[in-house]
Amino acid sequence: MMIVQGDEQPIHESRSVRGGELRKQHLLVGNDLGPGNFFFVLAYQKGDFFSPRHHHNFDQFRYQIEGECTFGQTGTMKPGTLGYFTEGSYYGPQDSTVPNVVAVVQFGGPSGNGYLTLDELHNARVEMMQNGHFEKGVYYRNEGVPGKKTLDSFQATWEWAKGRAMVYPKPQYAEGIMMDTNNFRWMPLDGVPGVEEKSYGVFTDCKIRNASYKLDPGATFEATGRGIFFVLSGAGSLEGGPYRKLTSLYVDSGESATFRATETSEILLLGLPDMSRMRTPIAEMVTTDDEAAAVA
User: Fold this and answer.
1) 11 torsion bin: left (phi>0), alpha (psi -120 to 50), beta (else)
2) Fewer CB in 10 Å around end: N or C, the chain?
3) Does the pLDDT at position 283 exceed 90?
């Protein structure tokens, strides 16, 4: 279990390999070398961010808090939009022309490929800058450096860190999924007085849950199941300490944590995969290096 008060975390310039000015506020960091690693941040985009159409070997959820960001044919994220971008599926290009704020969790998906740790990312990028440069989401190798001349920046970073070619899983969903949480209804949560729920779905064969919970003053809500619970508004107590806007909670399988509301509260659940189901034989995956290189 991890509990972090988001408003106490510093905002710093990102080491992103994508284009544009980007600042991040680190909320929850898994730092797990296994398949269950994850990274949860608030991203502050100035309005000049660009990333080409691409795909990943990990999963991510994005929740738009302020402003807008477009994702090409996938759609536009406006405040209250929850986007799920599953491993293997293409999305974008991503483009923001106005300042915006988005909560993002990136995590190892059903394939078991995992997610690079912050140290792995940083160390690889420092070394890569000596052998090429990043520009608008693409890594360009210097003349004479072995490897593809151009490659998607994250794929290039992953391959540098791991020392082998990236293998993309076959996507369980063909495209990214965008949900307008404003259009979902609050429904009573069975057996929990004073708590209502918006259920957005359960995704992939690893049973990744997504929902929001609204607590009336005096209500109690027990957070269970592997996932991140992010406070969008309200206040109360959580496991002996306070919770307030931007409080972030991670609970692992078999753990639980109790919210006790003193004010009307809204809490977003960004679920993570059931680790016991994250097993996919390598034969069920496909490599698409040529497709990824084509972004240049």
Assistant:
1) beta
2) N
3) no
